[in-house]
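REQUEST FORM: STRUCTURE PREDICTION
Request ID: SP-0412
Submitted by: Lab K.M.
Chain count: 1
Length (residues): 116
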Amino acid sequence: QVRLAESGGGLVQTGGSLTLSCEASTHDRNDFTVAWFRQAPGKEREFVVGIMWSGRDRLYADSVKGRFTVSRDYNKNTVDLQMNSLKPEDTAVYYCNVVRLLQSYWGQGTQVTVSS
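STATUS: Completed
RESULT:
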């Protein structure tokens, strides 16, 4: 079982920055994937970025390349998403997702709103 807790969402102006954190409650010594997805009103949930829990193998959606950076914080036991140059189209609920041993786990989501 993996429990996830997201934090760091909020309201920001266009061009601003936010950092989201996903804390995973696990002592699993095996590696697994951690990803951020987002869902805007009236749209399907979409992949944003992925990283291995070990910190390797980052993958970004084209829409966020060069603006978003994912990293692993070993002290806080989190995967952090640094979002820069935010645009109104980045407005969505952001969800943390873990896939471990073919099981998928989701956090409760955190709202990011970018005003124009």
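NOTES: The chain is about 0% helix and 55% strand.
Reviewed by: T.R.
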